[in-house]
Structures are given as structure tokens and as C-alpha cells.
Amino acid sequence: MTRGVVVDLDGTVVSGDALLDGAADALADVRDAGRDVLFLTNNPTRSPAEYAQRLARLGVDARPEEVLTATSATVDYLREHHLDESVFAIAEESVTDQLRDAGVSLVADARRADTVVVGYDREFAYADMVAALRAFGAGADALVGTDPDITVPTPDGPVPGSGAIIDAVANVVERDPDAVLGKPSDVTARLALDRLDRSPAECVLVGDRLDTDIAMGNRVGMTTVLVRTGVTDDETLAASTVQPDYVRDSLADARDLL
Amino acid sequence: MTRGVVVDLDGTVVSGDALLDGAADALADVRDAGRDVLFLTNNPTRSPAEYAQRLARLGVDARPEEVLTATSATVDYLREHHLDESVFAIAEESVTDQLRDAGVSLVADARRADTVVVGYDREFAYADMVAALRAFGAGADALVGTDPDITVPTPDGPVPGSGAIIDAVANVVERDPDAVLGKPSDVTARLALDRLDRSPAECVLVGDRLDTDIAMGNRVGMTTVLVRTGVTDDETLAASTVQPDYVRDSLADARDLL
What we know:
homodimer
């Protein structure tokens, strides 16, 4: 029986800054039926509190602890595996602010880092790659990425996402990341289930992306629902090896499954 | 019979700015014996003319056309495969100046490029990755790298080389480079043989790196000589699947083979 609903945000609940038709009502119904909701996004730049506020403004009830972003997942991961370690972060201010606010011990000198965290960074530059080489040269022993998205869409076309920067750093320091959080990682799936305090079989995941949302849900054993309000068209779906349990036009049309 | 001698520069003839012991005399003997010499380096930042001047100051006879750098190899490759095409270059000024001087048609607007060339660039930044996405989004159809070196040594430790930047760009535009020049590419081996106008069997290659110098020479069928004046120690040599035909302490000690 469904106890928890894991919902992607962009392309599923919202599109850019706008609410998708019927999404607020569908989520209200889910809560009325006694299900718990967890919003799950790979966008690392806004904090859970900011997301909760944005959703509230759009008429969607959401508490900060019900939002798991790539950065909040990264914080959870660091707490579990690298507690009290010094972290050198290659990421833009919106991400590093969240890490600092969450109590992560950031260092400005890469040579003093135990762990290097890499995320979305529109100011990424050669000097960051040099810093990463210095960090691992001086004894850092873990590389953690916020999320694997190689590009992210903008009105002007795709721009490099966290994944592009993580890969650039991993390549130059010649080591694989120890973890890349966000969807579709197993670590993030487990963090989501921990937040809901539910087993995979009790959870339905709704999302618009096959390679992140649906792949992750399928792998851990959630019921998966692909919605057509985002990036996946029928042609892409037909050609993919990743197949959802259900396909619906929108979150509103998935109400029978939630 | 040996007719052509292909010689690596850094670690084989010079170390940084200094000539290695006996290298000038050994090369003079090679010329006296009637062999042709080609200097081959993956450093893309200096032009063949600059290298010839530097070598002359150190007492080594060298004409610009006897120096094949990663950038001059890239120019040769562009002439052969992308003649008269518009090129958007992600590389620092010392490299783009050489491309421009060689007649490559550089464009400042990535969207107008047919080919994207990537090389050593200490000013590499996120904006360059965006530009590469725009270039291929607008129809560019070739990605060319100057050389594959992921890092290059400096007194302060390794820093990212051309290869790190090429890989970062290739990853974000989700296409493999059509060619990466420099050693150990077959393209560069062929360009070197063309310059010497010799068959591989007539050539001896001397270098200090297994994965670039020796790998390339072996693959095309040159006689290969590893010298101990550079980066390869006995431990590395013993552990490598790449093995030279001969090992000598220095270029001076390799005279019997040249």
C-alpha cells in the first residue's frame, strides 16, 4: 500500500517558475489521503527552505524537511561519511552557503582539505582544477559530487551542470568520485526513504526524466510513474531501456496511483 | 638503416631551460652522420620558431621546420581535414596566436564555428564550456584537441594540461574528439614521418615517456629508445606494458643507436 510519494519538482510539479496544471490539487489530495510527500530535485542551488517558500507561494504545501535537494543530500552524505572533516568546495556561492549553514567545515586552502566537494559552479575555472590537484597532492582522500547532471536547460540552450564540473575535476585528479549525490544515486534513494521512513515497496515516485527519476525509483523497487509534462517525449520513452511502471500525462492525471 | 631520428625535447634534450649533458654533441654527431633530425614535443605553447631559437641558444642546431609541436601538428591536421573552415579555439593566447599566424580562420563567436579546437589554457573557465555547447548546438561538426597530456609538471606540482581541458569540453558536449594531436597519436606519428620523408623502419625515436614517446614509436614501427633523463624510473619501466626496444641513461649514451 502506498505510504510515501516521492515527487520530482521541475517538469513534474513546476515548469521553471510556474506551477503545472492541477499539481497543487493532486498533492493536496495525496496529503488528505494520509500519504507523506518528499520533493526530490537535482538542482543544488536553492536550499530546502527556499524551495518550501517557493512552493508555498504557488499554493503547494511543503515543509523544508520535505525537500531533498542535491545539496541537502550531499550534506546528509558528508555527515554520515565525513563528519568533522575539512572540506574544500568547488561550487558557487549558493551551494557553499548551504554547506556552511549546515555546519560543514569549509576550508579556503585546498591543501588543508580531507574531502573535496564539487557542484554547480558558473565561476568554475582552471584555478579550481589546480586547487583540486593540490588538495589530493596534499592528502585529501575523498571526492564528492552534488549531482550528475552534465547539462541543465536554460532559455538560451543547455549550460554545463554540476556533472560536467565534477567530471572535469575527477578527470584531472585521476580518481573516480567516491559519491555523486542527487538522482539517480542509490545514496539519494536511501536518504529519501530514510526521510519518509518507508520501505521502497510503500513508495511511489513521480518524475519526468527516465535516466534520473525513473532509473532511481526502479532500481530501489519503488513504483515509478513517468509524467509527460517535462523532458521525455514518446519517442524517447519508446527508445529507452529504462521503463516506468506507469505513464501519465501529468501529476494531476496520476492521482489514481498516488 | 637509420635515416631519421625523432627526438623528444623536455626530459630528453633539455630539462626545463637547461641542456642535458652531452645532448648537443650527440645531436651534432647524428647530423654529421647524415641523419635527419625531427624534434617532437607535446608542449603546445611555443612555436617551432621559438623552439629553434631556444635550442640554438643552447648550442643545438635546429631549424623551425625540424620542430613539430602539438600546435604545429594541429595546424597540419586542420589544413588537411578542415581547410578554410571557421575555427573557434579554446586555448591560451600563445596557442591561438600560432593558429592565427599559420592562417587558421579563427572566429570569436562560437556559433559561427565549423570546428572547435581545444588546447592548453590557464584561463579556461565555465564560459568556454558554454561556448562549446553553443558551437555544437549551432552546427559545428568537429572537435580537435592539441595534445592529450592531462597534467604537466611545474616546480609547484602538476597543473592541468591540454588533455584535462579537452576532456572537460568533450564531456560537456557529449562527443569524442575527432582527433587529439601530439604524441602518442597516429596522426602526429604520420606527420613526423612526412616531415622526415622516411618510413618508420628507417627511424629511431628517443624519448623519456613510455605512454607518449615510446607508445607512439612502437605502434608505428620505429625503433624506440627510452632515456633515463626524464620522468621514467626503473620501477615505472618494469611495471609498464609499454616497453622500448632499448634503454639508455641519456641521449649522449644512445649515440650507438642513432
